[in-house]
Write a structure and sequence with these properties.
251 residues, alpha/beta, Rossmann fold, 8-stranded mixed β-sheet, EC 1.18.6.1, NifH/frxC, nitrogenase activity
Length: 251
């Protein structure tokens, strides 16, 4: 079982990237589980035709900790197993608590034994790297972390913070930095800036995604691009990215 965490600044297109990667991996015949680690609980929504699903933390609070596997999972497009951690009401409590609860309950309910995923994808908000948000990096969860960024300064800054956290805690058995994924915003010197960021952390840019109107068109249809436009050049970019990620994780 490969365990892969994808981090990035809020709004960088991380959930879109992860969901399309999940479909690309499922196309290869792999069993995939995608775990949304964000209080908004919308990471997997494009895999389920826009249908919201209950978040683990909400069910946990409602049922006072007594949750079942059926309650916290849904099956999405191409058989992708969908999980959303959720989070507290804004202003009330730690947002990272939802991630901690979700990962604990997935273990307790035997999710990995029941679904037997070949690949687990954690989609993690990367504006902060503390508490629950660092949980997928820790030993026993993700094996590799990939960072989605553009060439915009705030995105680069968030990417650097994530990479620094990994670098600082390598001696604690944290996940390895697999590389950076450039999700283009078409800003000046974009590829150069992301490559410089990668080199600062002795890593590389392992994937390049175009800024495509088809991505937005698919989102309007509440689906992934891989479902709506499987024969497009953009779909091939997601397939190439998935191949690159697999190659790094299998080294």
């Amino acid at each position: 079982m490969l365990k892969i965490a994808v981090y990035g600044k809020g709004g960088i297109g991380k959930s879109t990237t992860v969901s399309n990667m999940a479909v690309a991996l499922a196309e290869k015949g792999l069993s995939v589980m995608q775990i949304g680690c964000d209080p908004k609980a919308d990471s997997t929504i494009a895999l389920r035709d826009g249908e919201p699903m209950p978040a683990v933390l909400d069910i946990y609070n409602e049922k006072k900790g007594n949750v079942t596997l059926k309650e916290i999972t849904r099956i999405g497009y191409k058989g992708v197993v969908c999980v959303e951690s959720g989070g507290p009401t804004p202003g009330l409590g730690c947002a990272g608590r939802g991630i901690i609860t979700a990962l604990e309950k997935l273990k307790e309910t035997g999710a990995y034994e029941v679904y037997k995923p070949d690949v687990v994808l954690y989609d993690v908000l990367g504006d902060v790297v503390c508490g629950g948000f660092s949980m997928p990096m820790r030993s026993g969860y993700a094996d590799y972390v990939f960072v989605v960024t553009s060439g915009e300064n705030m995105s680069i800054h968030a990417g650097a913070n994530i990479a620094m956290a990994l670098e600082r805690f390598q001696n604690r058995g944290y996940a390895k930095l697999g590389g950076f994924i450039l999700n283009r915003r078409n800003v000046p010197r974009e590829e150069e800036k992301v490559q410089e960021l990668a080199e600062d952390f002795h890593s590389g840019t392992i994937g390049y995604l175009s800024r495509s109107e088809l991505v937005m068109a698919a989102e309007e249809q509440k689906k992934t691009l891989m479902e709506c436009y499987p024969d497009s050049e953009m779909a091939d970019e997601y397939r190439a990215l998935s191949e690159a990620v697999l190659a790094i994780c299998k080294n």
